[in-house]
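Undecaprenyl-diphosphatase (Paenibacillus durus ATCC 35681), 274 aa
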Amino acid sequence: MDTITAIILAIVEGITEFIPVSSTGHMILTSRLLQFNEQSDLMKTFEIVIQLGAILAIALVYRRRILDLLGIGRKRDGGGVMPRSRLNLIHVILGIVPALAVAFFARDFIKSLFGASTVLWALVAGGILMIIAEWVNKRKIRVTAEEMDDISYGQALAIGLYQIISVLWPGFSRSGSTISGGMLTGVSYKASADFSFLIAIPIMCAASGYELLDSYKEITGDMIGIFAIGFLVSFVVAYVVVILFMRLIQKIRLTHFAIYRFVLAACFWLFVMR
């Protein structure tokens, strides 16, 4: 791996990690285009490092909410009472435990599914789910959670269960499944995206930390510079993308991402895999 390859992969990771297009899928497809073995130990370790850069970015964006959940930094009101956010750690636990449990017990099976053809089908299937979720949310379901603080325990658990799809099907997109799951259970698009980004922090930290225990030896002295560049580039790009996405969320619908997924899958099938 050279510096240019590292920067390209880090940019792809930063752009795709938190928007519903599948970062795993893009990393596999990008590695194929760069003729880089995505199953090599070096590549797996590099992906973990740049994911940690993206995690740091999202943690920085949601730092106030994280502190609030931990009971740190809240100011007392005029009566001396500490205000509480209706979203608490139980919501987060309900949103992450199903996926973490499946990932832990089905780890080897999930790894066996990684591949370009699996990703292409996942891009299409995920896009279909996103279109359905947006249509149902607008026309068939009464939205009961306009903001993240309005999300119920049941909705948080449902989002966590939908997240399992992305765990078992590489390329489906974690954010795509969670945002769609939220919208199908009466959570607004914005609140679903907010909650999806928030629960990404603990689940990605757990997953990346666990994987790093197996592959940290790849971070050797002559590779530290490239890993550091990848981490920094992923952090900066992910931070900018999340800020822009949340500002433009009312203009960029799930259907737009679904169409992109269909086009990407078709182009890759026609021009790369055939």
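The chain has one domain: 3-72+87-273. The two ends are 26 Å apart (CA to CA). ok done for today
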